[in-house]
């Protein structure tokens, strides 16, 4: 059994790697299991609290899609930035950037089995701010949910393309739920967060979207569904069943946005109007974006977060499971 200490989990959580923090703590199953096999332990899943990107999981739970696929699942962790350490997991919904970093560094033994979404974050400024372009952020304080998070990478990319050096902007880490209150109080000048926080900031009158993540990097991959390698090796049929339920839920979101918005409101606490607005800013897609992962490797290496000698070998290992489960492009 591999154990993850509470202190390491807390450190990862503070860095925006909440869901990923638990993955190295997995205990490999004793024997292979098939979906619905009598006596098989439920698949332990986790997601990030109030992250609308993970809507497919909530919808699959509410609609019984996992049961339809013959697999029993249990939510073993609901994480929030800066929270307590995570429990033991088999699979998790998490950001692609931190997942890539952990896999590249060998701190998490995981593989991607499906894409969760692309786009779906935004750079938000105070509604009355004079900031009208990224270049206007010079000398300002901008909050991100975690260093090396997807949102941090997006901000760094936007700053570079706006002609700003990293030291010209004060970047701080702040939990997504605290961003809008801090923006309203003038404690920060801007923030980058996942939906529904940008939409909630806009709806409350506290902020306005300066640029959506789609403007910074069109169709950028954001979250993924990942599994522990030991779990994949021991229980591949169940991993595939979870991925199929996830893919079905993804299609359902796109075909029934009004119903999906009601589920989103239920799990995030957002109003139905806020949830509907937020869903419209997220692209839900279960097909792994290989080109997008290549770009992450380039950006993360450029930013000094990772160093990979054999990129093709890494891609084959990190995304290898996805080709046989959810398809890739």
Quick gist of this model?
The chain is α/β, with parallel strands linked by helices and 329 residues long. It is built from 16 helices and 11 strands.
How is the secondary structure organized here?
Blueprint: H1 6-14, H2 18-21, E1 43-48, H3 55-63, H4 65-68, E2 73-79, E3 91-95, H5 96-105, E4 110-119, E5 121-126, E6 141-144, H6 150-161, E7 170-173, H7 176-184, E8 190-194, H8 197-204, E9 207-212, H9 213-216, E10 221-228, H10 229-234, H11 236-255, H12 257-268, H13 272-279, E11 282-284, H14 290-302, H15 311-318, H16 320-325
Parallel strand pairs: 1-2, 6-7, 6-8
Antiparallel strand pairs: 3-10, 4-10, 4-11, 5-8, 5-9
Describe this entry's structure for a reader.
The protein is of the alpha/beta class and 329 residues long. It has 2 domains: 6-118 and 220-325, Periplasmic binding protein-like II (D-Maltodextrin-Binding Protein, domain 2, 3-Layer(aba) Sandwich), CATH 3.40.190; 121-216, D-Maltodextrin-Binding Protein, domain 2. Helices cover 43% and strands 19% of the residues. The protein contains 16 helices and 11 strands. The protein has helices spanning 6-14, 18-21, 55-63, 65-68, 96-105, 150-161, 176-184, 197-204, 213-216, 229-234, 236-255, 257-268, 272-279, 290-302, 311-318, 320-325; strands at 43-48, 73-79, 91-95, 110-119, 121-126, 141-144, 170-173, 190-194, 207-212, 221-228, 282-284. The strands form 3 sheets. The chain has a 5-stranded mixed β-sheet with strand order 7-6-8-5-9, sandwiched between helices. The chain has a 4-stranded antiparallel β-sheet with strand order 3-10-4-11. A two-stranded parallel sheet has the order 1-2. The two termini are 35 Å apart. The model is unreliable at 1-33, 81-87 and 323-327 (pLDDT under 50).
């Amino acid at each position: 059994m591999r154990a993850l200490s509470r202190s390491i989990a807390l450190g990862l959580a503070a860095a925006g790697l909440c869901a990923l923090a638990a993955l190295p703590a997995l205990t490999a199953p004793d024997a292979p299991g098939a979906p619905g096999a009598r006596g098989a332990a439920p698949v332990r899943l986790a997601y990030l609290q109030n992250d609308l990107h993970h809507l497919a999981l909530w919808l699959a739970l509410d609609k019984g899609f996992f049961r339809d696929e013959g697999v029993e699942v249990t939510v073993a962790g609901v994480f929030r930035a800066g929270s307590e350490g995570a429990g033991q997991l088999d699979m998790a919904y998490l950001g692609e950037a931190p997942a890539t970093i952990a896999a590249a560094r060998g701190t998490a033994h995981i593989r991607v089995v499906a894409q969760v979404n692309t786009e779906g974050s935004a750079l938000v400024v105070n509604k009355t701010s004079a900031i009208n372009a990224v270049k206007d952020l010079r000398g300002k304080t901008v909050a991100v949910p975690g260093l090396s998070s997807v949102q941090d990478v997006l901000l760094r990319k936007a700053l570079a393309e706006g002609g700003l050096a990293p030291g010209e902007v004060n970047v701080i880490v702040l939990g997504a739920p605290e961003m809008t209150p801090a923006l309203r109080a003038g404690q920060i000048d801007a923030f980058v967060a996942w939906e529904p926080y940008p939409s909630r900031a806009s709806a409350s009158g506290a902020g306005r979207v300066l640029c959506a993540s789609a403007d910074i990097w069109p169709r950028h991959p954001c979250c993924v569904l990942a599994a522990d390698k030991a779990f994949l090796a021991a229980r591949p049929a169940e991993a595939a069943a979870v991925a199929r339920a996830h893919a079905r839920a993804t299609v359902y979101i796109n075909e029934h946005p009004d119903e999906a918005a009601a589920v989103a409101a239920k799990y995030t606490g957002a109003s139905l109007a806020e949830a509907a607005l937020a869903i419209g800013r997220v692209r839900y897609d279960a097909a792994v974006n290989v080109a997008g992962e290549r770009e992450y490797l380039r950006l993360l290496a450029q930013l000094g977060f990772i160093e990979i000698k054999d990129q093709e070998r890494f891609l084959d290992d990190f995304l290898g499971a996805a080709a046989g489960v959810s398809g890739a492009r």
